[in-house]
Amino acid sequence: MCGKIAALALPTRRALAPWLRRERAIAMRVNIDLRRVLRRALQLLGVLAVLACAVPAVQCVALRYATPPITLTMLGQCGAVWPERGDVALAELPAHVPLVFVSSEDQRFYAHHGFDWEAIAIAWDANQAGGKVRGASTISQQVARNAFLWQGRSWVRKGLETWYTLWLELIVPKDRILEVYLSIAQTGPCVFGVEAGARHWFGRPAPKLTRDQAATLAAMLPAPARWTPSSRVVRRRAAWILAHPAPMTQEAAARHPLPRR
């Protein structure tokens, strides 16, 4: 009986043999294709990882020595109009000019490495409590955004800003970061930089700004396209800036309590 069953099964196996060989060949091709796709995907990820490090590094090295003449922020704000702007050298400015901008925007600029975690925590608590949304971007973050990226509130832009800030702090000295900030921060409608802002609003170069004029210019930064030196909110902010000078050394900034607005 068993012999008859085996004899009947043999032709069946022979008949199925071509199909089995074909299926094995298909499976092998699929496996080869999957391995090829996986290999190419890993190669692509490797290239993207290299670019993600190389591009910000190269841009930050360039920023260490040269200020960009035009940025995406300037193009987005001005459209077809060429912006008013002018570079400044930190060494040529009176001490009160960089002081008021650090006092206004980043009280512990010289103490942190790109992110002020206490300011972030305070802003988080204030925003959770409701009312006006409050930001906590440092000068380093603002330079990363203004020099390399675009304006907006998307998570993609915020993630890129964080990544660029890390590279900026790693490659560019603090004084140079501040110098770039003073050269590209918006200080009026289609006006960028302290030099251009000083000439636009006060008719004088940045090194000639008085203490009150510099504080007024710094006070306009949250809304430079809408506010003017005569705005009530600007006068109030300028008074706060002058009353709360920021420390300008790392040691003093590390001990400096963050003043509440």
Assembly state = single chain
Show unreliable segments.
Answer: 4-10
> What value does the Rg take, in angstroms?
30 Å
CATH architecture of the domain at 86-255: Orthogonal Bundle
Number of helices: 11
Mind describing the biggest β-sheet? 3 strands, mixed
Beta-strand fraction estimate: under 5%
Mean pLDDT: 85
Tell me what the structure shows.
This protein is mainly α. The protein has a domain at 86-255: Orthogonal Bundle (Penicillin binding protein transpeptidase fold). It contains eleven helices and three strands. Strand 2 and strand 3 (191-192) form a beta hairpin. Helix 9 packs across helix 10 (232-243). It is elongated. The model is unreliable at 4-10 (pLDDT under 50).
Spell out the blueprint of helices and strands.
Layout: H1 2-65, H2 72-78, E1 84-85, H3 96-105, H4 117-128, H5 139-148, H6 155-171, H7 174-184, E2 186-188, E3 191-192, H8 194-202, H9 211-219, H10 232-243, H11 250-255
Helix pairs in contact: 1-6, 3-9, 3-10, 5-6, 5-7, 9-10
Could you name the key traits of this structure?
single chain, 261 residues, mainly alpha, Penicillin binding protein transpeptidase fold, 3-stranded mixed β-sheet, 11 helices, 64% helix
Concise synopsis of the structure shown:
With 261 residues, this protein is mostly helical. The protein has a domain at 86-255: Orthogonal Bundle (Penicillin binding protein transpeptidase fold). Helix content is 64%, strand content 3%.
